[in-house]
Amino acid sequence: MSSPILSATNLQKTFGDLVVVKGVSLNLDEGEFVSLVGKSGSGKTTLLSLLSTLELPTSGAVTLCGKDIVRASEEELALFRRANIGFIFQSFHLIPTLTAWENVAAPLFPEPMTQQARREKAVALLERMQLGHRLEHLPGALSGGEKQRVAIARALVNNPKIIFADEPTGNLDSQTGQSIMKTLHSVNKEQNVTVLMVTHDMELAQNADRTLHMHDGAIQ
């Protein structure tokens, strides 16, 4: 049996006297779509940050794609993220002065590629997201659903092994949110990309392969 793509052991995160994540252990298998649910303040976004290398735990261990990320340097983590991880956020995090295709291509700039090759890869992803007609638009001219599809394309541009999505439908109406979820599930199934998604929407969570429930900093 293959090793999990993500393994966390006894993770704890404290801020002063406040314990936000309390002894969490979990495994994710390659190709799984897992939702993480819990009330506001339950610690789910902090846990996602720990699992995705954006924050380091106060104690505990995380192995992601075979790498011990707790012991890695920040430089190592930056290279590791670029090669293995895609991020999708509730607030999109698009660069307002870049066009849709430039936002998608931005993670490719450290790579030894021509500008034409970057554009072609970005355009292909945006066309897959039904945004071929929005290539030259700035984020301010896009709807919420279009911005999130640009963000998904950006998350996929480096062919990640795992995507971490933090409330990816939180700023969208229900119909647009369902469309975004269909896109994520398509990426998961067609490309075997592992997805860990934080959501407060139990209806969306139930469409995952597995749902983890978080309460007061712990997985129940």
Structural description of this entry:
The structure is a single chain. This protein is α/β, with parallel strands linked by helices and about 220 residues long. It has one domain: Rossmann fold (3-Layer(aba) Sandwich). The chain has 7 helices and 10 strands. The protein has helices spanning about 45-50, 75-85, 100-105, 115-130, 145-155, 175-190, 200-205; strands at about 5-15, 20-30, 35, 60-65, 65-70, 85-90, 160-165, 195-200, 210-215, 220. The strands form 2 sheets. A 6-stranded mixed β-sheet has the order 6-7-8-3-9-10, sandwiched between helices. A 4-stranded antiparallel β-sheet has the order 2-1-4-5, covered by helices on one side. Helix 4 crosses helix 5 and helix 5 packs parallel to helix 6 (about 175-190). The longest helix has 18 residues, at about 175-190. The radius of gyration is 17 Å and the shape is globular.
Order of helices and strands: EEEHEEHEHHHEHEHEE
Strand order of the largest sheet: 6-7-8-3-9-10
Could you list the spans in which at least 5 consecutive residues all have pLDDT below 50?
A: none
Distance between the termini: 26 Å
Work out the number of β strands.
10
Helix content: 25-40%
Structural class, judged by helices and strands?
A: alpha/beta
Number of domains: 1
The level-1 CATH class: Alpha Beta
Q: How much is the radius of gyration in Å?
A: 17 Å
CATH homologous superfamily descriptor: P-loop containing nucleotide triphosphate hydrolases
Q: What's the total helix number? A: 7
The third-level CATH topology is: Rossmann fold
- Sum up the overall morphology in one term: globular
Strand fraction equals 25-35%
CATH architecture: 3-Layer(aba) Sandwich
Biggest sheet: strands, sense, closure?
6 strands, mixed
